[in-house]
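Researcher: Let's continue the batch. This sequence belongs to Xanthine dehydrogenase large subunit, and it's 762 residues. Same format as the previous ones, please.
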Amino acid sequence: MKNIDAGTHVKGGSVYLDDIPLVNGTLFGAAYGSPVAHGNIEQLDVTEAAQMPGVVRIFTYADITGENQIGGIIPDEPLFAEGQTHFCGMPLAFVVATSNEAARAAVKKIKTAITPLPVITDPREAQARGELIVPPRTFTLGDVSAAWQQCTHVIEGRADTNGQEHLYIETQGAYVIPQENDVLKIYSSTQGPTAVQRAVSRSVGLPMHMLDVEITRLGGGFGGKEDQANTWAALCALAAHHLKKPVKYSLHRMDDMAMTGKRHPYSSDFKIGLDHELKIVAYEVTFYQNAGAAADLSPAVMERTLFHCTNSYFIPNVKATAYSCRTHLPPNTAFRGFGGPQGMFVIEAAIAKAAAVLDVPAAKIQRQNLLHTGDEFPYGQKAQSEAHACWNKAEEWYDTAAIRHNIFTFNTANKLYKKGMAMMPVCFGISFTKTLMNQARALVHVYTDGSVSVSTGAIEMGQGVNTKIVQVAAAVFGLPADKVRIQPTSTFRIANTSPSAASATADLNGKATWMACTAIAGRLKEVAAAELNVNVNAITFQQERVYVHGAPTDWDWKKLLMAAYAKRVSLSEHAHYATPEIHFDGAKEKGHPFAYHVYGTAILEVTVDCLRGTYTIDTVKVVHDFGASMNPAIDQGQIEGGIVQGIGWMTMEEVIYDAEGRLRSNALSTYKVPDIYAAPKEILIEFLDTQQDNLAIFRSKAVGEPPLMYGIGAWFALRNAMLAFNPAADIPFTTPMTPEKVLLALYSKPANGTIVAHENTV
Ligand code: LUZ
Ligand code: MOS
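Model: Same format as before. Here are the structure tokens for Xanthine dehydrogenase large subunit:
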């Protein structure tokens, strides 16, 4: 089935925040962000700004009617800076004016006197000073300290991954329209309607039942709007509440980039021990997460780093420790993979370094340690599938022996161009790591004209969740897709939603939809059975018709609905789904947190121009475990997008803050994302269809986040190509691998203690 938004997308008819027709009298907001990362605010002077044409009012913390607090997991994030500023871009004031231009012009006239305080941008420095968001956590399996003795090789190192800008095409924003009796209608570009509702409730001081957060769709989220849409909605709501006028704020791209958090940079130390058969016997890792100035979702992101620190491998002895470090950057936040990719990069770096020391291909170590069914993860859950399934199929279908041979031949024949390849297995856990968040609701109405209306907590952000929910309802009722409509997400229709995140949105909301539709269908079957005088189990619905024992009757869908309505049978249902089987004990750090895991393996091939340091990603070949995909076109799109986004993070996207905590890569002229030239020339995806049962909707496994991590292989493929040019090259495990870094490394000499790689390791 085609994505139901395809038509309006190509015709420009899809409605985003900026497409909502403006209500008469709408005012426009713009935030003034702190120019200093850390300091005491001595003075905030808005007199000149207030006199600018069109300015209606300028709000600061003094105008807050509720609490100056929008923190989620931890209440440590004021809406407006008060007394001190903690990051560049932290809102100090909110200008409201009669036009966008007037609001932005007035922002430029605001003056501050801020006494600077020391700025920390490095997570290790923050940790050394005891600046932690939450106490550190450690996951353990077996006994690492005893295990080192069993290892024939022990290799240590350090790995650093940089941040990543979300770059959703639609920037952050909100539009708040006051209703009677102080009720607020809040349009927000958010993945978390309830998060927005809570933040507004707390900061404006209104109960949640007065706040209707409504979303038709987002122009992308990628995690950036899981928690960080709250600020803009709260600012607009506060102004709308004071002024009794509609207030809209849609961020300028550069303000969005400067004021919002990104993927967390991590700095990590690893120690890996192997035996003579290349089995990884022990792995010790310490993660320093750069959380930024407030908790935001960092503790949860840190937790997922620990969950995925061994990626697709079984390691019997593991000790993984993570620190969430408070720095003076904008609070970093969810980003596709949610800490998982950061953890996986480190184990892949450890394996690559071990491979170089032992003079074997990394793939040999990788394959030797892949998870088997029943193997235990460091958090206590047991693997339910073979990580080998995708790996072996990838080796077979794509003929890795031939790929290696071709690369060897090419590299022998060429001096200035070198090719490299890497295998990237992925194992990603599906479910919010916080068990309580794994719940969802759906409200389904069947109208007497035969049309069906579905409301859930799911947010459509281009990932196709609404299309999948249509498929669920249409399948249960035996209706064509155009009889089912997904309504905009609204906190008045569906309450207490979890954000659309963790790859789990289609599963959670799809299952709730299935339950609601099945309940209504059950009542309709009773009606049909009575009318047709047959056993209820004989009834099915197909092609808008009642079937008995698989044969059509003269009862069509509408006739049945009218009969049910006449008998006063309810044609509506509100259903609640909570993922079964999952649990986690935070004191023991053990449990069964994930409904299931998604597996896959990618083979990435690159060519490096060793004169210029530039490179191309030639091909990405994937075998991906879909379970039983309910929409292969959408799922393939998610994989392609995830791969390109992951490659961007690993190669060209470079977030740069200076020592004063100012974002220097603050526009698309200085922050590069993959375009069509940087994207792989070829992406091949083979579906691993399995008969195995799982907890996914229609057994169609979650697909949002796992493919991003295939992109990690690009970094290692580049490393291998570089080593083919200069086996003594010093290539630190730092990302992104920009052409500048490639060039410097290609002509580098080995650092003290670095192992010189040999031809057969690459
Ligand atoms: N958000 C969240 C997430 O709150 N918890 C999670 O486990 C998660 N995982 C991935 C993406 N967002
Ligand atoms: Mo996301 S990182 O699932 O909001």
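Researcher: Any comment?
Model: The longest strand covers residues 417-430.
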